[in-house]
Every structure is written in C-alpha cells, then in structure tokens.
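Honest question from a wet-lab person: if I give you the sequences of every part of a complex, can you actually get the arrangement of the whole thing, not just the pieces? Trying it with mine:
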Amino acid sequence: MGNEVSFAGRHLLLELWEAHGLDQLEVVDQALRDAVEACGATLLTLKLHTFSDTGGISGVAIVAESHISIHTWPEWDYAALDVFLCGNCDPFDAVPVFKKAFRPGQIQMMESKRGVR
Amino acid sequence: MGNEVSFAGRHLLLELWEAHGLDQLEVVDQALRDAVEACGATLLTLKLHTFSDTGGISGVAIVAESHISIHTWPEWDYAALDVFLCGNCDPFDAVPVFKKAFRPGQIQMMESKRGVR
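Yes, you can. This is the full assembly:
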C-alpha cells in the first residue's frame, strides 16, 4: 500500500477537567502504575513530586516504551497527562484508568504520531 | 480583549532527524541539564535509561514547571523531545540547546497549549 506510514510511537495528550483526587499522592501514584499495566508497558522508574503551594502533583513513569506523565492543577480541577508509547502498546488503553482514578467531568484528547517516516 | 486565552502551560513536541550523539549518555544528560537552564526552569529530578539492544536512551527531567523528556532511536538518527513548561518559561528556549547538542539535519516542531481555559 502506498499510504502506509511508519512511526516510532504514539503520543496521546490528555486534558482532564472537573477532575478529582488531583492533590492526593496515592491516587496519582496508583493511576500511573495502573496505566502502565493497562497499556502493557514495562515500568523502569516512577517519580512523583508534590507542590506545597497548590497541592499540585507532577509524576512521570519512565517505561521501556517511552513515558507516561501527569501534572495536576488542583486549583483548576485540571490535569495534563501524556501517554507516549512505542512498540505495540496502545496509549488509549490508559484512558479508562485515568477516567476511573480522577472521574473527570470533561476530557480532551489529541494523538500525535512521533517519528513519522 | 475578548480573544485572550488563558492556559496552564506550553508543550513543545520536537522531532530531531539526522541527529548525532543519540547513544551517548553524557551528551543526552548534559543536553537535558542545559535545556532546563536555558528555559530558566528548576530541576527536581533527572532520570536516564539506556537500552542495550539499540543504544537508545530515554531521559526525563522533572522540573518545577512540568518536564523535559527525550527518547532516542539511534538506529534511525531520530529523537523525540518534549518540553512542557508552565509559568513564564518559554519551551522554545530549549531549541538552540538541542540543535547544538545533537546537530540534527532536520527538525520538526509542534506547540500545544495545555490547559486552555
């Protein structure tokens, strides 16, 4: 087929609004771990940071297939998530995990293919 | 002004092609640190992983303003970089750093505003 496209990975940018639990470290930690598992990815490192001024949390799971990250703004009930996975992993498999963990009233998604050749 | 837009951060997706040094840990490490500095961001954690099969490297700098990440595919002379920064930091300030570090023959860029309200 002449219209086949080869790419290195799929990068899903997720915007959660009217979301819950965004200042709860254990919720964010578990959501990242569950997302890694749901996508069939291999966890290498998980790091979390909390911000005392707002209660915001930043977390990144580095996986063998790239990374899954979250940055939360509890003051806006908003979180920005990225699910960037190469190989056969499907980043959309993380969406039900994040819906369950953060119960957002609204979700926006954008997928970007990375390394298109 | 009626057309003002408020957002949480700016996320720059960078694709480097025909790039060099993508399997050199010290080059990737220094590039991430220099990018953090160039953007005026505050480094919280920097983690790097190497992949023995391809020589590829994954690295994430978690900063107080979100994150800067890199995933390299030396076999394609390709690297995927993300510079996601909130506050007054400008992610485009990282571009000259990555150009100098990896001397790519081609660069593709896409900016996404995150948390647009």
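Two things worth pointing out. The longest helix of chain A spans residues 25-38. The first strand of chain A starts at residue 9 and ends at 17.
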